[in-house]
Description:
Number of strands: 5
Shape: extended
CATH class of the largest domain: Alpha Beta
Largest sheet: 3 strands, antiparallel
Strand content: 15-25%
Bound molecules: zinc ion
CATH architecture of the largest domain: 2-Layer Sandwich
Strand order of the largest sheet: 3-5-4
Radius of gyration: 20 Å
Oligomer: single chain
Amino acid sequence: MPRKKKDGRHINYYIDRKLHQRLERYAEDNGQSMTTALERILKEHLDRYAPEETAKPDLSGFCSNCNLLVPSDRCPLCGNRHVRPPKEDDYCYLTETESIWAGALSDVFSENQIPFLTKNRLGIGLAAKIGPSLERVGFYVPFSHYAIAKELEEGFFSADIPDQE
Ligand SMILES: [Zn+2]
């Protein structure tokens, strides 16, 4: 199955040798790559330092114009103020991806029995003119399956790049 590269940054800092040894030992003890160990240690510390950055946004409303989960008072996309709580069978916008990933993502949802709808963003005529690679596909899932679909989607798009050691 094809996987999209994770959106990451390389870091290169000259750190204390003993501290580095402790990090290596920690990673080994936990059966983690150095990358995973560093990410978890940093995340744990930073979550404690600035918990507001990890707070989830309010998505308790549903905009039926945009098929989007939105804050309870207003849709930030179309300005709709008649936002209502989502119903189980409301199809909610989940994500958008380049068409080359759409097939594989569809497979992930099918394998996990997630109902979904897709919507191509470019019209068929335009896609034929500029090529299918630029076409983007929107994915919509029922609210009842939104949380699990989000998890699957995030797993799909955050594949680990192996350490270069
Ligand atoms: Zn809207």
